[in-house]
Design the sequence.
């Protein structure tokens, strides 16, 4: 049943919105931009940053668009002098405690905070230059944090809570002493490395461990660089160069990598059949349920949060590791780089690849290779789509004999009934599911990231502005489907 | 000479707070007996009395209780808000210390009226010294059937437990208090839903201030008409006012709502050392600064509104000539910058910036631009903060700038004027 529609006006324009939706929803559906920082669709709606304040006729104070429900006849003003000056003030006060080293920041090209400072015309040194020194925590192999860049929007806290339920990131102190972070150094917490906090971060406070220097060094020393490029990375990378969500740029990324000096670029997912076969063999060997190893973050989560189910975890290495091993066997002297949508791949102590980088890191490399984002976009647009190099003979493709999903590929190779194969998100998973009927052969694929690898922790951050209507998960998945 | 009108505090200091017999001698538990015998009567009587919350918002108690009663739920709660953190306010402490059973009786009556069987006394962390005494009373009353199951054969159960506050000013805000009760960081929740619909553990919850609950037994015992015999039409009854500052007899005074500031000032004995009164800060640290000329204003919401302030928790700081509004503002803002939960940008960053400017003003002279910045920030925080703490925290600065501009201008370097 569809919900009742409410008629209201925003900036004098009559609009309708579903009952129960917020002013922000109504505005975005009608193409009216309201700046946000702490709001992140489906993740965070705390009303804490006060960027989205609007004037509502009759209201005593400014209202936050992200938390205020629409009412019939409501008159909303999103662009008055009072609203604009309030937003500027909010940004200027945030700048006071934000270390501005933009030029060397991992978010140099796509910083949401910086974007709004420019858009709203805020003076970033109104209250003097921030004198904070870097406060870096780079103890985790996957996730790094620099608190001096944190603007306390708390999106990461919500993202961590929603994705993992582990609450690794939390809020400490109060007032001007408030800090977001982990109780101890990130490396000594139970962080599973899913990276949802990183994609949630609007500034450069959270980022992945930087492995791009290794790749630059290999290129500089004329090593034979072989890249294993994930299709999920291909489905997202274009967003870094102004392509809309849902533009599959796998082929473009192949060309760009070659242009940057990589000798070979392979489609990482071109060997998933080999992986599926190994999984099917393991199921028939164990004659019991196997918890898939595909998502390293989920495997870490099982070990940390549900050790009783750890014995069910598959011994088959993750597809990225398996692919790297296969190439290593053929090309012992190659410098192997895997590009995945995943930060947790970095947690692997024995990744087989020489460097494990994320989609985001690849985008950063392209930007640096082209000197600036502007030229990167020009080069990106000028390139033809390339075809990846072919896999060694023994590599088996997946998908031709199934519906396309990896789980289907495992099933079709195992000959077991469909209901023996299921997918679960760790968020909100019922732990009893793991052990129930565990003696029945089959496979349970557990994923850490809420929408799976398509919105993995290593994918590009989707700023509040870009998620006006389409969801990144649906859009990218559609793009991925179109290319196949 | 102004006289106090003692209702809530009628027996304060007259009876041993630990003695139930003495409490019953002065009419204690009569209200509970009546309520247990005729639960329907309670809400009618409370609504007719016009009793409103004494925590500062003055919301009608009858409405609050009805909302909880009318919200279907398996479990409901009554929470006594004893997290009295407003600087310059110590009325709830006095009630809890001298007449603890008045509050507990009020809680049970609220429980019977709203259908709650669990009571929680959320006691300010700094009032830990009161906890053993309160716990002993709860234990004794539970043992003897004044609390616990089937109170006075009414079929109603009501158990009370004490939860110690976590030591933040914010715990006194009702939704932050609920967060704290549930074991989370004390930060205000988004409203709606209101606690009456979804409060402690998402159950309908009555949250009343200690003073409000202490008013309840008298309303039920003596009736609504008697309660209405003092106070104003819209806000009947008495209020506990705390007089502080440089006065001869600072303390808690019970006066009818609508009494004038002058009544309180005279009871407190006027300014020490024969100096002149310069002004008042009304309603705690987040209260307005007004000039001595407002002394004849009535202490009720309308009277306070007329002089541009709010009654709040009913505390009044009197300050003499020679005291600068700048230092009073600094004291207030320093407190709120420290107590801000850090959730929203205006309160966290804005108050800190205001504190810096005020500290510079208090130490010496500042540029004119900084004075303008102070006013601009105060207006910004007041309009943009997530909830009351931040919105109200800037009141002393806004009103100080308006009512005592000379104090601020004196801190601006002359050549710039």
Sequence:
């Amino acid at each position: 049943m569809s919900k009742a529609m409410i008629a209201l006006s925003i900036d004098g324009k009559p609009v309708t919105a579903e009952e129960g939706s917020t002013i922000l929803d109504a505005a975005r559906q009608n193409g009216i931009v309201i700046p946000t920082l702490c709001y992140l669709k489906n993740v965070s709606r705390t009303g804490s940053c006060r960027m989205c304040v609007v004037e509502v006729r009759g209201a005593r104070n400014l209202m936050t668009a992200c938390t205020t429900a629409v009412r019939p006849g409501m008159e909303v003003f999103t662009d008055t002098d009072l609203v604009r000056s309030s937003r500027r003030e909010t940004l200027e006060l945030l700048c006071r405690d934000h270390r501005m080293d933009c030029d060397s920041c991992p978010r140099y090209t796509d910083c949401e905070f910086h974007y709004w400072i420019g858009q709203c015309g805020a003076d970033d040194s109104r209250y003097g230059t921030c004198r904070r020194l870097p406060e870096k925590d780079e103890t985790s192999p996957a996730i790094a944090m620099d608190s001096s860049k944190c603007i306390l929007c708390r999106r990461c806290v919500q993202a961590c809570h929603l994705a993992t339920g582990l609450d690794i990131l939390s809020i400490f102190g109060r007032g001007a002493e408030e800090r977001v972070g982990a109780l101890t150094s990130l490396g000594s917490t139970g962080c599973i490395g899913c990276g949802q906090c990183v994609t949630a971060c609007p500034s450069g406070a959270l980022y992945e461990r930087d492995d791009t220097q290794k790749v630059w060094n290999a290129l500089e020393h004329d090593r034979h660089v072989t890249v294993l490029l994930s299709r999920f990375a291909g489905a997202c990378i274009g967003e870094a160069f102004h392509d809309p969500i849902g533009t599959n740029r796998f082929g473009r990324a192949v060309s760009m990598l070659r242009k940057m000096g990589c000798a070979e670029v392979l489609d990482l997912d071109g060997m998933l059949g080999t992986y599926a076969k190994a999984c099917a063999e393991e199921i028939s060997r164990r004659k019991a349920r196997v918890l898939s190893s595909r998502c390293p973050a989920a495997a870490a989560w099982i070990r940390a949060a549900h050790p009783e189910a750890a014995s069910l975890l598959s011994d088959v290495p993750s597809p990225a590791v398996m692919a790297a091993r296969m190439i290593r066997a053929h090309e012992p002297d190659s410098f192997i780089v895997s590009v995945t949508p995943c930060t947790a791949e970095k947690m692997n102590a024995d990744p087989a690849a020489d460097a494990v980088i994320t989609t985001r890191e690849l985008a950063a490399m392209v930007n640096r290779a082209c000197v600036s984002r502007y030229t990167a976009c020009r080069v990106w647009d000028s390139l033809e789509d390339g075809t990846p190099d072919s896999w060694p003979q023994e590599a088996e493709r997946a998908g031709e004999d199934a519906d396309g999903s990896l789980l289907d590929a495992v099933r079709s190779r195992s000959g077991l009934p469909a209901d023996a194969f299921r997918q679960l998100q760790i968020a909100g998973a019922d732990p009893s599911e793991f052990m129930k009927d565990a003696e029945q052969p089959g496979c349970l694929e557990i994923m850490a990231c809420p929408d799976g690898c398509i919105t993995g922790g290593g994918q590009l951050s989707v700023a509040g502005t870009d998620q006006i209507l389409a969801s990144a998960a649906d859009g990218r998945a559609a793009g991925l489907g179109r290319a196949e | 000479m102004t006289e106090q009108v003692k209702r809530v505090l009628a027996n304060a200091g007259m009876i041993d707070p630990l003695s139930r017999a003495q409490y019953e001698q002065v009419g204690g538990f009569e209200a509970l007996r009546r309520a247990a015998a005729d639960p329907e009567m309670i809400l009618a009587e409370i609504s007719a009395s016009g009793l409103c919350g004494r925590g500062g918002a003055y919301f009608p108690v009858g409405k609050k209780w009805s909302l909880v009663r009318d919200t279907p739920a398996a479990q409901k709660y009554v929470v006594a808000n004893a997290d009295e953190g407003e600087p310059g306010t110590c009325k709830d402490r006095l009630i809890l210390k001298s007449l603890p059973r008045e509050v507990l009786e009020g809680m049970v009556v609220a429980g019977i009226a709203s259908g709650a069987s669990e009571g929680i006394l959320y006691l300010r962390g700094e009032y830990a010294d009161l906890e053993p005494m309160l716990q002993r009373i709860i234990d004794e009353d539970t043992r003897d059937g004044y609390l616990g199951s089937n109170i006075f054969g009414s079929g109603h159960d009501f158990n009370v437990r004490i939860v110690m506050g976590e030591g933040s000013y914010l715990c006194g805000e009702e939704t932050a208090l609920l967060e704290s009760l549930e074991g989370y960081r004390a930060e205000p929740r988004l409203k709606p839903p209101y606690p009456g619909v979804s409060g402690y553990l998402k159950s309908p919850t009555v949250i009343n201030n200690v003073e409000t609950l202490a008013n309840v037994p008298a309303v039920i015992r003596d009736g609504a008409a008697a309660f209405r015999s003092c106070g104003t039409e819209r806000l009947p009854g008495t209020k506990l006012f705390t007089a502080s500052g440089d006065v001869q007899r600072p303390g808690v005074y019970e006066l009818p709502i609508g009494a004038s500031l002058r009544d309180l000032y005279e009871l407190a004995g006027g300014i020490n050392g024969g100096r002149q009164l310069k002004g008042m800060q009304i309603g705690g640290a987040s209260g307005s600064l007004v000039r001595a000329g407002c002394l004849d204003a009535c202490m009720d919401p309308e009277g306070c509104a007329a002089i541009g302030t709010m009654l709040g928790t009913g505390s009044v700081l009197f300050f003499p000539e020679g005291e600068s509004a700048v230092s009073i503002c600094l004291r207030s803002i320093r407190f709120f910058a420290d107590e801000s939960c850090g959730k929203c940008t205006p309160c966290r960053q804005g108050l800190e910036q205001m504190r810096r400017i005020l500290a510079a003003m208090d130490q010496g002279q500042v540029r004119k631009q900084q004075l303008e910045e102070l006013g601009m920030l105060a207006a910004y925080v007041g309009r943009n903060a997530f909830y009351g703490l931040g919105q109200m925290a800037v009141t002393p600065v806004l009103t100080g700038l308006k009512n005592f501009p000379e104090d601020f201008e004196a801190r601006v370097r002359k050549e710039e004027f």
User: Anything to note?
Assistant: Strands of chain B lie at 77-82, 118-123, 159-164, 205-209, 238-245, 251-256, 277-282, 288-291, 315-320. The mean pLDDT of chain B is 94. Chain B touches chain A at residues 168, 185, 190, 337-346, 348-353, 376-377, 380, 382-386, 391 (CB under 8 Å).
